[in-house]
Amino acid sequence: MIYYAHTGGYTELGGIKEFLLKIRFLNYKRLVPAIHKLPKKTKIKNVDTGLTGKLLFERIKERAKYNKDIKILIIVDDGDCKIKNNIINDSIERLKQELSNIKLIFLFAEPEIEKWFCLDKSCIPNKPCKSKGIHSLLTTLIENIDYQYDENKKSCKEKFSEKFKATLEQCGIYYSKSSNGSEYLKKIDQDVIQRKDEFSRTAILEIKSIDL
User: Fold this and answer.
1) How confident is the model at residue 48, as a pLDDT?
2) 190 band by pLDDT with thresholds 50, 70 and 90
3) Preceding omega of 33 cis (within 30 degrees of 0)
4) Residue 104: strand pairing partners
5) Distance between CA 32 and CA 57 in Å, rounded?
6) What are 134-187's pLDDT values in tens digits?
7) Which pLDDT tens digit goes with each residue over 3-35?
8) 5 has which bridge partners?
9) Residue 91, burial from CB neighbour count under 10 angstroms (0-12, 13-18, 19+)
10) What pLDDT sits at residue 103?
11) Contacts of 74 (CB under 8 A, 6+ apart)
12) What percent of the chain has pLDDT over 70?
């Protein structure tokens, strides 16, 4: 059994397990969030909703204390410009020390999971948009990511997901995390993400090489 944990957003709830199965077909079980079925849209009511970074790590420690079966745990989270700016490194090291009996694999989408949708555009039809196709606009978007960290917001100065949504809307494509995020995540190719995303590559390779 391979355990995994992530924040309680619709994209992650609906698509992370399928994405992990694409990386490697294993027996996965979710540790966090403790939701047993997908909630109706706009009605996520759970103590794990929105947890990210240090708060997600704290919840993982709480749950891991009561489950002695965990040998391997994959943690999936948005980087929110913390990985690029080396802000979360101390928290990662502390979690490794406190859960030293568990192999931890950190699969970060830096800055947000929507970047993966730009790297593997197969989830988005390449509609013409002004003078360029939507795929060309998405390539430009990820080539110009602003990784500035906002200390007050505890995340990126600019929300990449909002810029992603605005780019799609230029081409007449509506996007919301609750309506489309999980479906996009189910469609993307993990090999493309491994090849193109420096922040996710190591974790994907670790999952592929798990020694059972």
Assistant:
1) 57
2) very high
3) yes
4) 73
5) 10
6) 999 999 999 999 999 999 999 999 999 999 999 999 999 999 988 899 999 999
7) 999 988 889 988 999 999 999 999 999 999 876
8) 32, 75
9) middle
10) 96
11) 2, 3, 4, 5, 20, 28, 105, 107, 203, 207
12) 92
DSSP string across the chain: -EEEE----HHHHHHHHHHHHHH----EEEEES--SSPPPTT----TTTT--HHHHHHHHHHHHHT-TT-SEEEEEEE-TTTTTTT-SHHHHHHHHHHTTTSEEEEEEESS-THHHHHHSGGGS---EETTEEHHHHHHHHHHT----EETTTTEESS-HHHHHHHHHHHTT----IIIIIHHHHHHS-HHHHHHH-TTTHHHHHHHHT---
Q: Where do the domains of the chain lie?
A: 2-208
Residue 169 structure tokens:
């809307």
Six-digit token pair at 148?
């500035």
**Lookup: tokens for 173:** 């494509």
